[in-house]
């Protein structure tokens, strides 16, 4: 039987100043900062996790904020657009909210759905779409209440350097179903209620993406647990993908590989989740470090820029 991922686990991007990042995703979009930690490979850099009220898989966008770092370029070999699902009937609220904060937006139609498209302060391409399915996000922040709050990922648009090869991987190895084509896009769907739709842009732009501020670093897919992840690792290696060893990220474990369309993919476990080291009421309040960095906490905190999660309304 073909293995199947249930969909997107998280998406990780590179952004600029941490306060600007937090103000936008918490203050404007109303998402919860469920975890503040560091890049385990570069502990002088924050790693922020924003999502629904508990940080469920399929809702988490993560960031490496690099203040004053070089600007990247969105192009082939990257996730080009990150899509968020909002409740049916909430789009008028979001149009008014973006206008309130002077964030330019435009509307677009794809696969019979209307999307509200805009950029974050550092240049990441985002869009909102109304979806009836998927659990309600119970988080309230400022004027963003559960009735209108972002549920999680509606999906993503992949800018593959070789769309046919990426499509083949998603359909034949990762178990997503091809559900249609619309103009320059192919749509694939998993069996989850959130983070379940991925569109691939059929025609490459011819401009290779360049990693830096305002670009997505990687997209992560869901594994049920460590055993499922081991099976994914074996399957990918068997099919010629250069997959990494398992890396412990505290809140999940990860494997990484570059797919043939040159997008960095990760497969991450659903457990243990973000509640293992903080109570629900305190999630995201304090800097959490993995054990190997606790002895140098003072040094790390002396390098990291201060920020506050603050209501902007």
TrEMBL record:
<feature type="domain" description="VOC">
    <location>
        <begin position="7"/>
        <end position="131"/>
    </location>
</feature>
<protein>
    <submittedName>
        <fullName>Ring-cleaving dioxygenase</fullName>
    </submittedName>
</protein>
<dbReference type="GO" id="GO:0051213">
    <property type="term" value="F:dioxygenase activity"/>
</dbReference>
<dbReference type="InterPro" id="IPR029068">
    <property type="entry name" value="Glyas_Bleomycin-R_OHBP_Dase"/>
</dbReference>
<dbReference type="Pfam" id="PF00903">
    <property type="entry name" value="Glyoxalase"/>
</dbReference>
<dbReference type="InterPro" id="IPR052537">
    <property type="entry name" value="Extradiol_RC_dioxygenase"/>
</dbReference>
<dbReference type="InterPro" id="IPR037523">
    <property type="entry name" value="VOC_core"/>
</dbReference>
<keyword id="KW-0560">Oxidoreductase</keyword>
<keyword id="KW-0223">Dioxygenase</keyword>
<dbReference type="InterPro" id="IPR004360">
    <property type="entry name" value="Glyas_Fos-R_dOase_dom"/>
</dbReference>
<feature type="domain" description="VOC">
    <location>
        <begin position="152"/>
        <end position="270"/>
    </location>
</feature>
């Amino acid at each position: 039987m073909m293995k199947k991922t249930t969909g997107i686990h998280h998406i990780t991007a590179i952004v600029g100043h941490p306060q600007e990042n937090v103000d936008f995703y918490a203050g404007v979009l109303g998402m919860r900062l469920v975890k503040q930690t560091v890049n385990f490979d570069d502990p002088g850099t924050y790693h922020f996790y924003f999502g629904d009220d508990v940080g469920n898989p399929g809702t988490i966008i993560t960031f490496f904020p690099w203040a004053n770092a070089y600007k990247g370029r969105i192009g082939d070999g990257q996730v080009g657009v990150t899509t968020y699902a909002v409740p049916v009937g909430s789009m008028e609220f979001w149009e008014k909210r973006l206008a309130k904060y002077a964030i330019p937006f435009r509307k677009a139609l794809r696969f019979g759905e209307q999307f509200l498209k805009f950029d974050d302060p550092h240049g990441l391409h985002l869009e909102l779409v109304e979806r009836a399915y998927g659990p309600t996000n119970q988080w309230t922040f400022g004027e963003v209440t559960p009735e209108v709050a972002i549920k999680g990922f509606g999906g993503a648009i992949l800018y593959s350097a070789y769309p046919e090869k990426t499509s083949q991987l998603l359909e034949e190895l990762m178990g997503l179903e091809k559900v249609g084509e619309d103009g320059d896009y192919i749509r694939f769907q998993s069996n989850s209620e959130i983070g379940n739709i991925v569109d691939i842009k059929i025609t490459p732009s011819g401009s290779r993406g360049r990693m830096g501020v305002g670009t997505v670093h990687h997209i992560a897919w869901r594994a049920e647990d460590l055993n499922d992840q081991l099976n994914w690792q074996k399957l990918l290696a068997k099919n010629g993908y250069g997959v990494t060893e398992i890396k412990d990220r505290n809140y999940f474990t990860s494997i990484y590989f570059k797919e043939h369309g040159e997008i960095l993919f990760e497969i991450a476990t659903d457990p243990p989740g973000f509640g293992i080291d903080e109570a629900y009421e305190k999630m995201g309040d304090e800097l959490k470090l993995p054990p190997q960095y606790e002895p140098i906490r003072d040094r790390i905190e002396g390098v990291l820029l201060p920020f506050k999660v603050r209501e902007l309304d």
